[in-house]
Amino acid sequence: MEILRCENITKIYGTGDTTVRALDGVSFSVEKGEFVSIVGPSGSGKSTLLHIIGGVERPTDGKVWIDGTDIHSLNEDRLAIFRRRQIGLVYQFYNLMSVLNIDENIALPHLLDGRKLDRERLDEVVSRLGLSAHRQKLPGQLSGGQQQRAAIGRALYSHPAILLADEPTGNLDRKTGEEIIALLKDSNQKQMQTLILITHDEGIAMQADRVIRLEDGRIVQNEPVRNLL
């Protein structure tokens, strides 16, 4: 079952002599429960693509469907609601609220959406993340790996249709980074959570089901990992 489809995504910044074509006709689809890694050199358009899929930026041209919804046809208010409910975003820098404890950070988007706290779901997520002993702590009282776990929990709490991770291990040491990737893979495999991961690490990329490689805003490779081994 197709959960994501990108059709002819183009993103242009600037005008005239300052024009930059960050994405140039990018098209691909992702099946529900699939783990896809997106790789490419700096400036290839990886993060721009992820931001457009995540509804954070709008494309200059093209369409993005998530679970059957053309997300960029939505107005800003409806897009914000859709993003909170259907898209989980994990960044290299954790973006946690420093004045909120870990429970509050994980549940915040859900509560901002006007929905009642699901205590059972919160307990499940916190336990699965290994954060049960740290629930009342503020982000500044945790290690980088623990903060990234909380950021993943925030992204997963509302059962999003798709989880987008932009260099989630880039700010972590190798051992902690491996733990974070294992956690994401566990969510993908055991919870059938669709995962799209941007990484510069080829070793991480090859743990996915499929690798999409960008160069100069275009897809130059879109292959199952089994074909690359």
Query: By CATH's scheme, which homologous superfamily applies?
Result: P-loop containing nucleotide triphosphate hydrolases
Largest sheet: 6 strands, mixed
Overall pLDDT, averaged? 92
Task: Report the top-level CATH class.
Answer: Alpha Beta
CATH topology: Rossmann fold
Count of individual beta strands: 10
Strands side by side in the biggest sheet: 6-7-8-3-9-10
Beta fraction: 25-35%
| General form | globular
Radius of gyration: 17 Å
**Could you give the distance between the termini?**
26 Å
Helix content: 25-40%
Class from secondary-structure proportions:
alpha/beta
**How many helix segments?**
7
Which architecture would the CATH scheme give at its second level?
Answer: 3-Layer(aba) Sandwich
Low-pLDDT stretches:
none
Q: Encode the helix/strand succession as letters.
A: EEEHEEHEHHHEHEHEE
When the domains are counted, the total is 1
Could you characterize what this model shows?
There is one protein chain. This protein has 229 residues and is an alpha/beta fold. The chain is 32% helix and 28% strand. The strands form two sheets. The protein has a six-stranded mixed sheet with strand order 6-7-8-3-9-10, sandwiched between helices. The chain has a four-stranded antiparallel sheet with strand order 2-1-4-5, covered by helices on one side. Strand 1 and strand 2 form a beta hairpin. The model has no long low-confidence stretch (mean pLDDT 92).
